[in-house]
Amino acid sequence: MIEESKLVQLIAQQIKIENEYSKRLSDLRNRVGIAAARLILLEMYQDTEKRAAILAEMLDIIRGNPKVTSLWDHTLEEYLDETLVKKEFEEQVKKETSNLASLKKEIWHSRDKGLKFLCRNMEEDEKKHDRMIRTIAKNLYKADK
Fold it and tell me: Where are the domains of the chain?
């Protein structure tokens, strides 16, 4: 990892930047009257809020355990049944996949370019979420063994 004090400083600065941007996006969204633009700004606002929250949690982890060399070094505090976790992930993916497929089909039949744009963003998010879930599962199982 980068020298801890420098890393903590960089993360804290990024949290500040994300929070400032989040406020500007919220203010801008309240002044925009175009529905598609408002929805896109809402998505951007939520992404910015999410990044700030993730960075804050990361900062708490780093500050709480100065010996951590990787965020994957933390071991599980309680027993996790590998099959149960895998089943939970699979059920969630099935639910999302089924519903999003139907939603996507309807949206693509729409002539609304704003809806199509937001649908593509949702698709990209779902692909990213799938990669994230697989990474978590893979690394949880490694850490547990």
Answer: 1-74, 75-145
